[in-house]
Amino acid sequence: MTVIKRWLSVISILCLLSCAETPELLKNNNPDKYTVAKDVLWASPDEFDLTMDIYTPTSGKEAYPVLLIFHGGGWLINHKGIMTQASKYLASNSEYVICNVDYRLLVDEQNTVTIDQIVEDVFGSVLWVQEHIGHYGGDVNNIAVTGDSAGGHLAAMIVNSGHLLGSDGYSEQSLRFTPSYLPTGMTAEQVDEQGGISVQAAILSYGAYDIYASGLEGIESWKNPFWLMAGSLARGLFGDKFNATDNPSLYKGVSPSYLIPQASERQLPAQLLTAGSEDKLISPASVKTYMAKLQNAGHDVQYWEHDGRGHAFLDSGSNSLMGQSFEKDAPLALDVMIKFLDGVFY
Question: pTM of the predicted model, to two decimals?
């Protein structure tokens, strides 16, 4: 399938703005099981406020492992609200502090945000959590990250490149990131010297792992319908002065597929990769290709496929036209995620 057909085939699947909320079952959301701190401000890069919702179990343990969630939407649409139902489900059915995180989109700041800045936002969110999550019952030594689609890409960047930090910002000369939040009194270099950003587990759901290939295939043009859905003109992921053909190092530097270390050099945490068997945007084959690269490099990775499901099966709400809903599609996948995390942390 050509990239044009692939993108167009999922427009109707991803019409998330029209998703309807449906009544929640107690299994899907039991507010007695958690408390929630909503819209916690964690950084303001370029005076753009970024927040997260933090869910803490009420079972009374001294500390809980932490899970950060990054939403999908092609780096162009959605916000943490699309992961609210998943966050409530996880908080109702597991014992983790859940952090549902917002980051900047490409169309923010008058359509000037670059994809490396988005990576820097999620890097910063992990550093903020490591410094502050103790106030919300979280264990700073037991942190996992997850995300779906674009969020899966961002979670993979944390795992693969969280050690590539510097104060000069991302460029062809450095290919290092300056997190949007840094621990009090520390520079990016000092964080890097202490081992960078490390997490203990990751769950990557139908993620985009090769931004370089996507750049060659038209993600920066009208061929990518997310620009239209975001109400914006298409442009380069790094601005109009750069493209994947002339500046491959920039694109590969934000592509997890090109950033997998050999386990003998740096061991990555345990990872679970998931995909929908009917996904036309991020195919199971592409996810398995990424998994094979991880395995060939000596890393611990598991795979789970959601039978009969397409893209975005973790999203809040429902789409009656496509026959998709959170209640029907998400719980089984979330149970698989909980089982994986429990195997790592408990």
Answer: 0.93
Residue 35 bridge partners (DSSP): 56
55 Cβ neighbours under 8 A, 6+ residues apart: 34, 35, 36, 87, 88, 90, 91, 97, 98, 99, 100
- Can you spell out the DSSP letters for 143-163? EEEEEETHHHHHHHHHHHHTT
Q: How many domains does the chain have?
A: 1
Rounded distance, CA 315 to CA 69, Å?
12
Q: Report CA 141 to chain centroid distance, whole Å.
A: 20
Q: Scan for tokens 């502090």, then name that residue.
A: 97
Contact 182, 127 (CB under 8 A): yes
For 95-112, how does the pLDDT look when each residue is reduced to its tens digit (9 = 90+)?
999 999 999 999 999 999
Tell me the DSSP string of 126-140: HHHHHHHGGGGTEEE
CATH number of domain containing 296: 3.40.50.1820
Q: How many CB atoms lie within 10 A of CB 87?
A: 25
Q: Do the bridges between strand 34-43 and strand 50-57 make them parallel or antiparallel, or are there none, so unpaired?
A: antiparallel
